Q: What sequence folds into this?
């Protein structure tokens, strides 16, 4: 049986125009590898949004990175002051991977 | 004339989209296609404007119109900011963000307006497309200064927001297509005219169907609009448009071009500026600025504003 | 005539799509585009039909055709339900859901059929588009009554399914475009005709390429179809189409319009009705009703049904 | 280091036409905030489906909400009688958030 | 209160042309049911990619299946020799379901 | 001539896209639309080529051109493989994968090239579209043999890669549309010509705008290209194109068709072959083969290669 090791899955939901900035901040937290996932819409404190794309300004993208505990902490620390002002959602959960050295 | 403009298929499809959304129909134009039609409209407007300039050459009127446009885009946010602060009771950041939208321009309003002007024999000069392109960005700079936030925070684009502002996709595409239109000239444009000229009005119908859906859903979804801000979303375009028409006539533009300048001044951006604002002033409420520009001002301009601007411009032009 | 119809590019692209899917090719038309072409087809059909009605004015034949269409859509689900229960051995819910599809109509079958009728000199009257719109929804009501499920459950739309049925996107767009076509008239349609008229057949080719892919993949994916239900997916359109042609001729419609009524009666919905059924009768199996209408009836109608309906209508018309 | 607190991530995979109804049911369970995610296709007891969109009837959407234990229980109770008849998939997992008051 | 039972969520991020093969391998591990999710882009050891679709060759799709511990182990064993050569990402996490018999 | 070709809107939009990407603009054509335009271009090329063949009938030149194309596609990967191994210092797998791309062809390069040839009075024969289709796949087989990997591993398609190769979506669509064009003939093509002929060049502009964005972003994103491989991405098309022109002239083709054969030989696949390679040789680096074919060879061919191939072919043709 292949052995698996626990890493952290960090997910950040952010407005599309902010994604390049999120990528830069993640890199400065040592998180180089990530995947971007699309969304369709949602509802939050700032109301209902849809990915209407006429103005890409309100479309959101999910940034997802599997990384170490330390990487997660560094990213969380960098992002937490921005969560409220930039309407970001930050979620962290456990995930098991094989080839753990790829997710540090 | 005004009534005629209301019964164009373009406007009727906008109404159809709005009614469908208000009736909570599930009608929807896929986003990817709506975005592509927006790109198409910019390419088409740019190419056709550039082609006309290639034909007419550089004229004095062109420089004058460009100067008027730049001045309007830089300065219109100032009275708008004041009105939004006092009458609209907005905080500094939101007022600055909204003001930037009203100083900038809406490409689709310009497109629909040009069709109306052409239909009533007031065709604007081809170079007004260049003025459109010139007017997209200066208002953003004024808006950022008003918000006292030239710098941005940790998330704002390194190297400054100016880059984001000037290399925004729609600005690049409009300016680029205009230049391609100038280079290609009439002969180069002919083989691609079936796409970028002949199809234009039909594509506009599909786009406005979607705009109707999007604008009405936004009106229903968001509670960001107060009566005050909704009223300003009508008062600002009327004031700006009247100013634009006056400036154009005084500066010596023909009636059609002055009307086009009025349309530009009276329109509010909902493609280029929101994308920049989301990055530059993230605390500003997109429900507010998109609600005002897309859900109130755009429909107002499409139905009442454009005929009004045309009327004002022709009246003023007749007076001198 | 029938053979000629089979060699139209429209049909050939449908075959190409089917063959590609059966050969497990990775060919695919992006969903967003396929959906947009469906919207485009409805806009185009509505606008052109409305334009023709604007031209011809309200006539008695129009009212008669509308009455026939309404009656067919309300009543056709009844014998279909009986056949699906007894011959098809379906349970009540599934039989009701399928019956609703066969009482309603397929916009694309109508579009392809109209092209064929026009090509063979049997052009249907413009108002048949209005009949198409009228026939979309009554069958859904009959279907729901048959299933004894007017109410729905916790997940069904509050305020009743009627809303979902009448404000389904495709219904709204078709009816709306028809009305816009009537309002705009010939003069208003001219500038948008390059998109909504000239491009129509080419767009239909791309759409049918995708339909071929989707229908064939659905046939391969699903094991919901038995031999019995597949046979009914051919018998029902033949029966309904013959009935439609007879009713049309007896009611005094011209041969082309009677043929169009036959095509409408013989076609089965795969856009509007499935969306409503998914909500109204969630226990019904979409593999079954989409498998029958989209994967069997549609290809049958496109290749054999349409020429047959045209033939029946012209034969019957010749007899009186 | 920023502190994180555990909440529940509820995911409901449902046919697109059912999504407005899911939103209403979630609201009646006290879950006001959510995000909608797109899907491409899948395979289940009722066979293979693809998001062909010609008939939007078989496209599915993932409804995702981060909420409290109680909100999760209320939504699970409301949805569980519908899972079988409406071909829904309901998944619940743990997720860590900061600003926990936003996810109640 | 509806009872929930723990199952495993297996996620495999793979190039779009490989998805049919992943489906076959999953079936041979006894995993018949799954959902496919779209992605927009990402960054990994082999660089930045975007779903430009002109050449579908570099678009990636997320294969997601909820299954038993045993199914997960079988799939992990079958896929782990391929992870490095085929640039796959394999993630496993816990998820609670109701109607557990549907996720075996 | 060469300079003229550079100022076509098609090329200018490619440049605009590249510049926008290099300037890190957020301009983007939605993927679904870009993919659809690719499908459209293949349908259009296939239909028009098939129509011309239906008109001219089967000729000896057609068979000769087909034979030349097959030979080139099978054999061109061999010297390319050698050059990539020795000069490019690539390992066996990567060299084989890249060689397959250069033996195969680029549909869009062919499309842009045909427009240029037509514009300068060197229109290629209609059957060159069939040659294009013939040349897509043989190079893949040679490439797999070179990599000694006909079998594939656990993830490779069961039943062999041949299936994936021959039923690749773009191959199926091109061949299918060609056959439909032959069957439909001039009369069948007329009603769909407004879409598949009149719009062609405009659609190509939108597609090349996207290609410019994609190619430039790929150049910036990837570090897979060395100076050596980038140089080979220019040397290989020049060598292959010269060979293609010579073979075409020696085999007795007219100057235009020989030039088209040169364009095919000189072009490198970036749609069909990468999709197959991702499955057949997963260890090969897509950053390398897409970087070379899409980001270097395509822009080179579009701007310099096509005029060069036309010039070589006409020079050689004049010599005999
Ligand atoms: N509890 C939640 N669960 C899932 N998504 C959420 C939640 N809260 C917020 N979101 C998403 O994040 C977006 C921004 O949230 P907000 O800043 O509260 O408006 C919303 O529109 C949702 O898409
Ligand atoms: N075990 C599973 N893992 C992931 N997705 C599933 C699973 N079971 C069902 N699904 C998804 O839910 C849809 C409906 O399931 P069903 O009702 O079983 O047909 C399927 O088509 C899949 O997309
Ligand atoms: N640590 C990670 N977290 C999230 N996604 C990842 C991670 N590593 C790789 N990926 C995704 O998997 C793709 C292939 O990874 P690689 O084989 O490392 O190039 C990347 O382009 C990312 O989309
Ligand atoms: Na303005
Ligand atoms: Na029917
Ligand atoms: Na080649």
A:
């Amino acid at each position: 049986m292949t052995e698996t090791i626990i890493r952290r899955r960090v997910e950040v939901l952010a407005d599309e125009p902010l994604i390049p900035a999120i990528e830069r901040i993640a890199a400065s937290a040592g998180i180089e590898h990530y995947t971007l996932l699309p969304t369709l819409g949602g509802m939050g404190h700032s109301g209902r949004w849809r990915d209407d794309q006429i103005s890409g300004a309100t479309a959101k993208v999910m940034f997802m990175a599997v990384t170490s505990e330390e990487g997660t902490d560094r990213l969380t620390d960098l992002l937490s002051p921005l969560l409220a002002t930039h309407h970001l959602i930050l979620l962290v959960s456990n995930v098991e991977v094989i080839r753990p050295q790829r997710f540090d | 004339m005004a009534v005629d403009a209301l019964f164009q298929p373009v406007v009727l499809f906008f109404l159809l989209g709005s009614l469908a959304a208000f009736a909570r129909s599930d009608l929807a134009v896929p986003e990817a296609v709506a975005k592509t039609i927006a790109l198409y409209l910019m390419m088409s407007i740019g190419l056709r404007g550039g082609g006309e300039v290639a034909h007419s050459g550089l004229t004095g009127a062109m420089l004058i119109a460009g100067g008027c446009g730049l001045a309007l885009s830089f300065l219109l946010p100032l009275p708008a900011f004041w009105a939004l602060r006092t009458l609209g009771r907005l905080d500094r950041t939101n007022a600055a963000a909204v003001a930037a939208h009203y100083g900038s321009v809406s490409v689709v309003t310009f497109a629909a307006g040009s069709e109306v002007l052409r239909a009533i024999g007031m065709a604007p000069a081809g170079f007004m497309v260049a003025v459109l392109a010139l007017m997209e960005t200066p208002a953003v700079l004024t808006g950022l200064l008003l918000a006292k936030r030239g710098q941005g925070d940790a998330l704002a684009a390194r190297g400054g927001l100016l880059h984001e502002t000037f290399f925004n996709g729609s600005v690049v595409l409009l300016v680029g297509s205009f230049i391609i239109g100038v280079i290609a000239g009439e002969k180069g444009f002919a083989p691609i005219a079936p796409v970028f000229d002949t199809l234009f009005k039909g594509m506009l119908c599909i786009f406005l169907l979607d705009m109707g859906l999007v604008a009405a859903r936004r009106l229903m979804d968001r509670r960001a609009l107060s009566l005050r801000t909704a009223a300003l979303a009508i008062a600002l375009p009327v004031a700006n448009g009247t100013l634009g028409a006056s400036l154009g006539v005084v500066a010596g533009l023909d009636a059609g071009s002055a009307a086009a300048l009025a349309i530009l001044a009276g329109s509010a951006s909902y493609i280029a500026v929101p994308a920049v604002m989301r990055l530059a002033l993230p605390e500003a409420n997109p429900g507010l600025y998109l609600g005002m520009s897309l859900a109130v001002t755009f429909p107002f301009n499409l139905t009442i504003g454009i005929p009004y601007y045309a009327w004002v411009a022709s009246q003023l032009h007749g007076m001198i």
User: Anything to note?
Assistant: Chain A is about 25% helix and 40% strand. The beta strands of chain A are 5-15, 34-38, 41-44, 47-50, 60-67, 89-97. Chain A has a mean pLDDT of 88. Residues A 13, 42-46, 49, 87, 89; D 33-35, 64-67, 103 surround adenosine monophosphate (ligand 1) (CB under 6 Å).
